[in-house]
Design goal:
Blueprint (H helix, E strand, L loop, with lengths): L3 E4 L2 H4 L9 E5 L6 E4 L9 E4 L2 E2 L1 H4 L19 H12 L2 E4 L2 E3 L5 E10 L2 E8 L4 E2 L3 E2 L4 E9 L3 E4 L7 H11 L5 E5 L5 H4 L2 H7 L4 E4 L1 H11 L4 E4 L5 E3 L5 E6 L9 E5 L4 E5 L16 H16 L3 H13 L6 E4 L9 H18 L3 E6 L6 H14 L3 E6 L5 H9 L3 E5 L6 H12 L5 E5 L9 H9 L18 H30 L2 H7 L4 E2 L1 E7 L2 E7 L2 E5 L4 E7 L13 E6 L6 H8 L14 E3 L5 E3 L4 E13 L2 E13 L7 E2 L8
Parallel strand pairs: 13-14, 14-15, 15-16, 20-21, 22-23, 22-24, 24-25
Antiparallel strand pairs: 1-2, 2-7, 3-4, 5-6, 6-8, 7-8, 8-9, 9-12, 10-11, 12-13, 17-18, 18-19, 19-20, 26-36, 27-28, 27-31, 29-30, 30-35, 31-34, 32-33, 34-35
Helix pairs in contact: 9-10, 11-15, 12-13, 13-14
C-alpha cells in the first residue's frame, strides 16, 4: 500500500472556501496521484488532488447481469438498452480526493464516478471507522453513498455524514451547481445519510425534499428551518424527465422506521440506502468477488436487518409487486451491487425466511419517533431481544391507528411499550394496548425521558390488572441516558427475549444431540475464567470455559460467547477486554457470584474485589493471572460468536494453576 505523509494541500480547499485545518494524507509512492484541474463539463475551477483510475477494465471483467427480486420473472425485452447504459458507465473515470485525517488519525476521502446513464455517485470513504452504533464493530471501515440523477430536473439521493461536511460539500459543488438541485430524496433520516441535508438546502433553498411522512417529520426537527416538502407513498411516482421516472417503495424498519427505496426506470437502478449494504470501505465501486464481501455482507445483515426480517420480506414483496426491473442496487454503505446482485438479494430472502422460521417467539416494541429518547431506547431494547433469536417488530405509535395497534398486540407474545407523551393520541393508543393484553402476553414498560412521559407505574398497573405477565419492573430514566442506562435497556430486552424463548430452546437443545454424542463431546475439558470489560459508565462480566489459545505469532486465543450474553456487546472487533484466570483452589465463590442471574443494569462487581488494568477493564483480585487483549475478528457459530483476540499484555499474580472445568454432557456449559 502507498505510504502516507502529512501535508497541507490548500489547492483542494481554497476555491470552495473550506478551512485548511484538515491534515492532508498524500500518497507518496503512487506516481499517478497528482493535483490537476477538474476541467470537464463539471464547469468548476477548483483543483482536486486525484487518482484517475479507469473503471472500464474492472467493470468488463464480468458480464452485466439483469436481476429481479426473488420469485419475480426477469424482463429481458430491454436488455440491449440496459447494457448500453452500463457500458457507458464502465467507460467513466473514478475520481478520488486526497485522504484527510479527520481526528485520531482517522482517514476520510470522497470518490466520484458515473454508475449509470446520467447517474453519478459521491461515495464518502470512512477508511478507519471501527464502530457503528454502540456495539457494531467494523473491520474494514465503511462508506456513505450519495447519488445525483441528471434528468431534465436534477435530483440528489441522500447526502453524507457530518464529519464529511467540508469534503462532501466541496465534491458536490465540483460535480454540479447545487442551486440547480430540484429534489433532495431522503431515503431515511439516520444522520450518516441525512446529516448534511441541511447544508445542501443552504445552497439549494428552492429544492423540494422528498421522503416518507415520518421522514419529513423527523427531518423538520433536524434542519430547524422551513423547506419545501413532498410526501410519497408506496409506488408513488416522480418524473425527472429524459426517461428518469422514479418509483418509491415504502420499506419501514430497514433499518429505520422512515425508510424508502427509490427506483429509476431509465437505468433500472434501485436505491436502497441501508438495505443490501455492507460496512466495507474499498475503492472498488461495484461488488468484487463474493468471497471478498460475503463476510461483511452477512455480518451487516445479522446486526442491522435480521431483527426486522419480516420487514425485509415485506419490502421485497412490495418491490416485486411494483414489477420493477433491477440492474443495479445502489446502496448506502459499501460497494454497489451489480455483478452478484441476484445472488446477494436472494441471500436476504433466504436469511429472512430462516430467521422467521427459527424465531421461537415474536415481540412488538411500541415507541414514539421524535419524542425524547424513545427511539434510541427502543433500539437498545430491540438489540437485546434480537440476541435471543426472538423476532422483533418496531412500531411507531404516531403512525398506527387503533385497529393496527390491536392487531400488533394479538400477533405478538411479547410487548414492550416506551411511554409516549401524555395527553396525546399516542397515549390513547397505549391505553388501547393495555386493554388488549391478556394472560398469555409478557409486557415490559419503560420511560422515554421526553419530559412529559405518560406515567409508567400507572400504565404498568393497568397491564397487571389484565393478568398479563410482567417479567421486569418498569424501566425508569432520570437523566440523559448514559452508557450504563443503555446497557440497562439492552439487558432488559435480552431478559424479556430469554423469558419468551427459553422453553422452546431447551426443547430444541435436548432433541438436537443424541445422548451418546453429548457424553462424548462432554469429555472436552477447559479452564475457568472471568471475562470482564468496561465502557464509560458501563461494565460487564461472565464466566467462560470455552477458551483456547489459537496462535503463536501474534499471541492470540479464542473465546466463545453466546449471542444473548450481555458482555457480547463489549466484544466487537476493535474492542479490548480482560481474561481473568481463576485459581484451582478457592474459585467456587467467584464462580458462584458471576453465575448469578443479575437483574438488568446491575453492577456485576458489587461485593467483588477488583482494580482496573491500564485500559480501564476490571481485573479480579482473586485471579491467578490476567490477560489484556484486543478483539481482531469474530466468527459466527449459530448460537455463539467465536471471538479471536490478540494479547496486548499479561500479568501473573500467583504461582498457582488455573481451575479446570469438567462436565458430563455437552448440552450445557
Amino acid at each position: 500500500k502507498a505510504l502516507v505523509k502529512e501535508s497541507v494541500h490548500s489547492a483542494f480547499f481554497e476555491p470552495c472556501g473550506v478551512s485548511q485545518t484538515y491534515k492532508m494524507a498524500t500518497l507518496t509512492s503512487c506516481p499517478t496521484l497528482k493535483s490537476v484541474p477538474h476541467t470537464t463539463a463539471l464547469q468548476n475551477n477548483r483543483l482536486r488532488a486525484t487518482s484517475r483510475v479507469s473503471a472500464a477494465s474492472s467493470l468488463r471483467k464480468s458480464p452485466v447481469t439483469t436481476c429481479s427480486l426473488p420469485n419475480k420473472p426477469r424482463d429481458t425485452s430491454t436488455q440491449a438498452a440496459r447494457n448500453q447504459n452500463v457500458n457507458a458507465a464502465a467507460a467513466a473515470d473514478v475520481w478520488l480526493s486526497e485522504k484527510v485525517e479527520w481526528k485520531d488519525d482517522k482517514r476520510i476521502q470522497t470518490q466520484v464516478t458515473q454508475v449509470a446513464e446520467d447517474t453519478t455517485t459521491i461515495r464518502s470513504l470512512d477508511w478507519d471507522r471501527d464502530r457503528f452504533d454502540i456495539e457494531f464493530g467494523l473491520q474494514e471501515g465503511t462508506t456513505y453513498n450519495s447519488y445525483i440523477i441528471r434528468g431534465e430536473k436534477v435530483a440528489l439521493i441522500d447526502a453524507s455524514h457530518e464529519k464529511f461536511r467540508q469534503l462532501y460539500m466541496a465534491t458536490l459543488a465540483g460535480e454540479i451547481d447545487p442551486s440547480t438541485i430540484e429534489y433532495i430524496i431522503v431515503s431515511h433520516t439516520e444522520p450518516d445519510h441525512s446529516g448534511l441535508v441541511g447544508a445542501v438546502l443552504d445552497l439549494a433553498p428552492d429544492a423540494t425534499v422528498v421522503g416518507s411522512k415520518v421522514c419529513l417529520q423527523f427531518l423538520s426537527n433536524l434542519v430547524h428551518k422551513p423547506f419545501k416538502q413532498m410526501v410519497v407513498g408506496n409506488e408513488a411516482k416522480l418524473d425527472l424527465g429524459n426517461g428518469h421516472e422514479l418509483t418509491f417503495i415504502m420499506a419501514p424498519n430497514l433499518h429505520w422506521p422512515d425508510t424508502i427505496f427509490t427506483h429509476d426506470a431509465k437505468t433500472n437502478t434501485l436505491f436502497t440506502c441501508d438495505a443490501f449494504g455492507m460496512h466495507y470501505c474499498t475503492e472498488e465501486v461495484f461488488d468484487p468477488e463474493m468471497d471478498k464481501i460475503m463476510e461483511h455482507y452477512s455480518f451487516y445483515y445479522e446486526c442491522l436487518m435480521k431483527a426486522n426480517a419480516r420487514s425485509v420480506l415485506t419490502a421485497m414483496r412490495k418491490t416485486n409487486k411494483a414489477e420493477l426491473t433491477i440492474d443495479t442496487i445502489a446502496n448506502g454503505h459499501g460497494p454497489l451491487l451489480r455483478t452478484h446482485a441476484p445472488a446477494l438479494m436472494e441471500k436476504y430472502q433466504e436469511w429472512s425466511d430462516a430467521a422467521l422460521a427459527k424465531a421461537p417467539a415474536s415481540c412488538a416494541i411500541f415507541y414514539t419517533a421524535g419524542y425524547g429518547f424513545s427511539e434510541v431506547l427502543a433500539k437498545e431494547l430491540e438489540r437485546g431481544v434480537t440476541k435471543t433469536g426472538v423476532e422483533v417488530e418496531l412500531l411507531d405509535l404516531a403512525n398506527l391507528d387503533t385497529q393496527e395497534v390491536v392487531e400488533a398486540v394479538a400477533g405478538n407474545v411479547g410487548i414492550i411499550i416506551l411511554s409516549p407523551p401524555a395527553d396525546t393520541p399516542m397515549a390513547d393508543r397505549v391505553a388501547t394496548i393495555a386493554a388488549a393484553v391478556g394472560p398469555k402476553k409478557s409486557v415490559l414498560v419503560a420511560e422515554s425521558y421526553g419530559g412529559n412521559d405518560e406515567p409508567v407505574d400507572t400504565l404498568n398497573s393497568a397491564i397487571r390488572d389484565q393478568n398479563a405477565t410482567i417479567p421486569i419492573q418498569p424501566l425508569k430514566v432520570k437523566e440523559e441516558p448514559s452508557e450504563a442506562a443503555l446497557q440497562l435497556f439492552e439487558e432488559s430486552g435480552t431478559d424479556l427475549g430469554q423469558a419468551l424463548s427459553t422453553k422452546t430452546k431447551l426443547k430444541e437443545l435436548k432433541g438436537a444431540m443424541p445422548p451418546e454424542m453429548a457424553k462424548a463431546l462432554g469429555k472436552l475439558s477447559g479452564g475457568l475464567y472471568v471475562v470482564s470489560a468496561a465502557r464509560g459508565t458501563a461494565k460487564s462480566a461472565m464466566i467462560a470455559s470455552w477458551v483456547s489459545q489459537a496462535s503463536f505469532e501474534p499471541l492470540g486465543f479464542t473465546v466463545a460467547v453466546a449471542k444473548d450474553r450481555a458482555i457480547e456487546a463489549f466484544m466487537q472487533t476493535g474492542d479490548t477486554f480482560v481474561l481473568n484466570c481463576l485459581p484451582e483452589e478457592g474459585y467456587a465463590p467467584i464462580m458462584k457470584h458471576f453465575l448469578t442471574r443479575f437483574p438488568p443494569g446491575a453492577d456485576r462487581f458489587e461485593g467483588v474485589k477488583w482494580g482496573p488494568n491500564k485500559l480501564g477493564h476490571p481485573v479480579l483480585d482473586e485471579a491467578v493471572a490476567h490477560i489484556s487483549c484486543k478483539v481482531v475478528s469474530r466468527m459466527e457459530a449459530i448460537d455463539h460468536w467465536v471471538v479471536y483476540s490478540e494479547v496486548v499484555d499479561g500479568v501473573v499474580h500467583k504461582d498457582e494453576r488455573t481451575a479446570t472445568h469438567l462436565r458430563k454432557f455437552a448440552t450445557y456449559y
